[in-house]
Amino acid sequence: xxxxxxxxxxxxxxxxxxxxxxxxxxxxxxxxxxxxxxxxxxxxxxxxxxxxxxxxxxxxxxxxxxxxxxxxxxxxxxxxxxxxxxxxxxxxxxxxxxxxxxxxxxxxxxxxxxxxxxxxxxxxxxxxxxxxxxxxxxxxxxxxxxxxxxxxxxxxxxxxxxxxxxxxxxxxxxxxxxxxxxxxxxxxxxxxxxxxxxxxxxxxxxxxxxxxxxxxxxxxxxxxxxxxxxxxxxxxxxxxxxxxxxxxxxxxxxxxxxxxxxxxxxxxxxxxxxxxxxxxxxxxxxxxxxxxxxxxxxxxxxxxxxxxxxxxxxxxxxxxxxxxxxxxxxxxxxxxxxxxxxxxxxxxxxxxxxxxxxxxxxxxxxxxxxxxxxxxxxx
Length: 379
Fold this sequence. Notes:
Blueprint: E1 13-18, E2 31-35, E3 45-50, E4 56-59, E5 68-72, E6 85-89, E7 101-107, E8 110-116, E9 123-127, E10 133-137, H1 149-156, E11 161-169, E12 177-182, E13 188-189, E14 193-194, E15 207-208, E16 213-217, H2 220-227, E17 234-236, E18 247-253, E19 256-263, E20 275-278, E21 295-297, E22 301-303, E23 312-315, E24 320-326, E25 332-339, E26 347-348, E27 358-366, E28 369-378
C-alpha cells in the first residue's frame, strides 16, 4: 500500500448532535459538535451538508488554537461550550427531530459522514465504539467519539493499519513475527486482527495507539525473552509459517483484508537470512537486541508555523555513519556522512522543512548500526 493521502491530526470529524432539546423554545437549543486533534490547521472553512440540502460553510480562524467547534442555535450564552472549544451560530434549517438523517463534512481533503438515527427528545446523538451513532441521555456531556475503520478511512483516505516490518527468517531460536503500525493519530481496536489465515484471530479489548506499532507473533514468550524489554507491545496469534525465499503476508481484521507484503525474486525483494524486512518508509525503528538506541532526535513534532522550530539529532556512538533524511513517500531529501568521533553534541538538521506534512524519517547506518527515527511535520 502506498502513502496515505494525509496524516492529518487537524482533520475535523462529527462528534455529537443535539437535535431535539425540550427545555427551550423550538427554535433554540439544538447544536452539533465537530472536533479535530491539532490546533494548527491548514484549512479555514468547514463545509457541511444535510442530505440534499444546500451546502453551507463555517469559517474557522486558523490561528484560533481550539480543537472543537460547536454550532449552536439560540442565545450565545446558552451554548454548551467547553474547554478547548468555541461556539458559532447554527443557521439554516432545523435539525430533524422525528426522522433519521445523513450529514456530510469536508475541509480540504478531509471527509466525514454521520448516519444519524431517529432522535429522542432531550437526548444527544453520539458516535460510539462500534462506529454507529446512538441516542444517549444528557445534552452537555463531553464524550470523544471512538473512531473505527470506516470512520478513519472517511477522512484519512486510506486504510489506517498496515504492515511496517516482517521477520520471515529471524535468528535461530526467535519466532517469526511481523509489525503493524497505525498511520493515524487515533487509537484503533486490535480485536479481530490476523494474518488472514489464522483460524482464531486476535481476541482483545486493547487498541493500537495513534502512530503506534505492535508486534504479532505465534510465540510471544520467546519473542519477549529475545527483546528483553516490556516496552514493545506483543500479541500472539497462530500465524502461518512464512517461507524464507518467497511468500506473501497478509493483514486482516475479521474478513476484511487491510494490507499485504510480498517478497522474493518475482517481486524484486529478496530477503537475506537471518534478517528482518522493513517496509519503507516504515514508522518504527527496526527491532534489535541493542538495549540503547544510538540515534536520538530532539523533537517528535515540528510545526512550520514556529519560525524557531529546529530538528536536532545526537549519535550515541563514536563511529562513522551515513545519515539520510527521508520523506514520507520514501524520497531521500538529505544524505550526508557524519563522523561522530569528532562531534558528540547535538547536530541541527534544518532540511526538515523540506519534508511534506506528516511523518518524516531520519535513517542512520554504519558499523553494525541500522536505526530509524520518525518525527511528524505539521503546518
